[in-house]
Task: structure prediction
Amino acid sequence: MKTDGKIYVAGHGGMVGSAIVRKLKEKGYTNIVGRRSSELDLTRQADTEAFFAEEKPDYVFMCAAKVGGIYANNTYPADFIIRNLQMESNVIHAAFRNNVKKLMFMASDCIYPREAPMPLKEEYLLTGPLEPTNRPYAMAKLAGIELCEAYNRQYGTNYISCLPANLYGPGDNYDLENGHVMPSLLRKFVEAVENDSPAVTVWGTGTAYREFLHTDDMADACVFLMEHYDANTLEKEDPYARETVNVGFGKDITIKELVGILAEITGFRGEIVWDITKPDGTPRKIADSSKLFNMGWRPQIALKDGIRQTYLDYLENRHKYRS
Ligand code: GDP
Result:
């Protein structure tokens, strides 16, 4: 990417998009554009096309998405599939029509088959049934990846996709029902300490494994990939091989272990109540990030340090965050 090239970060107000903007600025990129969802509704094709025709970005980070934790995915399945399909097809097609030089599409590691062998390798995508609680979201994200591949194959575009682990960091959604596990639990622990509550309720059995990655590491990986990884210059033995890259931390922990870390960091000494009426979701999810690691990238933020930083950010900025 040229440092003065115009970069559109779709979803720049969200957790991932804002981290990418911070990273781009830190690395000397000067020409970054974004629109709040109140200014541009990416589910509307005509508005999206008009924006691209006006701004003519050179590079696109497609981070705009309808995202949420296990409860939100399970409760609003129609919203998750339709809004993601609309936004990604509008953005990718508009990017193509306006000769965007390179695009990165953000997917997620929750789109792998539920029973895929661990660690998850990129080639395991679409090899088995999906986890039912987030299947609509996963189907939309799989369609987004395939859109990128199809444009690459038919038109020689340079669209790549990445599959991040369970992300956390500043700017997250702290809604207790709809958020992901890290922000929801962080908030529960902070409030329990503040209110002197004797117990915190955690969903599921605590036995599920998740791989957590700080959003600043994720952003660093995304910019790294945009700088060093091309879809159409790779020598491809298989023309149908996908240009997806796992972006993980390289180590997973159980929800129980996460609870222990959160209790320690927030200073909570009360009881943990496990609400086993709530789902555990996929039993284990850890990506094989060797494709990315072999290109020379590594995460820099140790889990406890990242959680501590996120905790301090939450204490300072929670009035600004969704909750
Ligand atoms: P997932 O990684 O796509 O399944 O999504 P989440 O980030 O929502 O993580 C879900 C896992 O965390 C499941 O095993 C839940 O049982 C567990 N969990 C425990 N407490 C909570 C909570 O308060 N909120 C959420 N979202 N998940 C929780």
Notes: The two ends are 36 Å apart (CA to CA). The first helix runs from residue 15 to 26.
